[in-house]
């Protein structure tokens, strides 16, 4: 199978935005919608609605509500329970909307495993971080975590749209780093005497 530069760029955009969905569900959708609206990102067939004015307004409103919700104690945890499955769906939507020129098996594998999987991986990491913050600070540091997640989502989204090849490399390196850390933690747990 031949991967063109456009296909690799689309993978970078889709997977970068999917990873950003793990931080915040609607920020990457808003960035994608604006990028499509201003012809920065071409959309796959059937996904033109993502770049419409109603979509921009809907994603913008949802982004504002989600961002403020994470700064309110207890609501942030309620949002996490809803955000986990929503992040997976959003990761698949962002990937599906930009991936073109791929055989169906490869395209849907990239959408489900790549897009949905990356969003789930990042989202589960942020949920664990928020839980740790709540346990160690009684929730006092949760607004700092919320601000970092919001910033991470915005930066990752813009990075994916403007520098898709670099975003693709960053996503791969991030996943490898996360798996390396998880392996070390698991190894340390096995080595501790009971």
Task: Characterise this structure.
The chain is mostly helical. The chain has one domain (5-191). The chain contains seven helices and no strands. It has helices at 5-21, 26-37, 53-69, 75-98, 104-137, 142-162, 164-191. α1 packs across α7 (164-191) and α6 crosses α7 (164-191).
Q: What assembly state would you assign to the polypeptide chains in this entry?
A: single chain
SSE order, one letter for each helix or strand: HHHHHHH
Estimate the mean pLDDT confidence: 88
Largest sheet: none
Number of domains: 1
Outline: globular
Q: In percent terms, what proportion of residues is strand? A: under 5%
C-alpha-based Rg, rounded: 17 Å
Distance between the termini: 51 Å
Question: Regions with pLDDT < 50 over 5+ consecutive residues?
Answer: none
Number of strands: 0
Q: What is the SS-derived class? A: mainly alpha
Q: Enumerate how many helices there are, as a single number.
A: 7
**Helicity range:** over 70%
